[in-house]
Amino acid sequence: xxxxxxxxxxxxxxxxxxxxxxxxxxxxxxxxxxxxxxxxxxxxxxxxxxxxxxxxxxxxxxxxxxxxxxxxxxxxxxxxxxxxxxxxxxxxxxxxxxxxxxxxxxxxxxxxxxxxxxxxxxxxxxxxxxxxxxxxxxxxxxxxxxxxxxxxxxxxxxxxxxxxxxxxxxxxxxxxxxxxxxxxxxxxxxxxxxxxxxxxxxxxxxxxxxxxxxxxxxxxxxxxxxxxxxx
Length: 231
Fold this sequence. Notes:
single chain; Tetracycline Repressor, domain 2; 2 domains; 0% strand; HTH_TetR; DNA-binding; HTH tetR-type domain-containing protein
């Protein structure tokens, strides 16, 4: 992990990458009060970015909501661009917990995949994720590095996680799949469905029901497994 050496560089000279790693230092290396301040800044910054967009948000608004000073903000995040990256990092770390997978075989495998599908689909259709996508789409030309960072921690991460999980099941003899990577891509696409695009473009008045979500997840799992489950 890359950490800025204290006193070697002025705040304005540090790169965005250094600022990011300063932000994600192990919790034990920071005082609880510092962690609480950072969490407050991130929560309020997320709300401001979602409400007003990147261009419409300024750091003075954040200071007004959270207190403190710009110097503190710069020390934590570098600048507004670094703050947005920290918001993305914080959001995606929470999302990782949603799509965690554990070993399972037989009937338990189907149940695990259905539960994964429900969690994944619910996350994709959430208002918060839709707002984050819209925020980042507006930054595609201005900050391609951030877009790559986001994709690595979301779309690419979830497919890699599932692909490795399916490949491990194939090795264990629990599944028969010719191409686990392709299967994972198609399975996740089946879970996303039409509703994901709609959620990005329209503020949905209500979340998908649990029954509907499970119905879609079970259909996707049935397609994935088919006759692939070994006897």
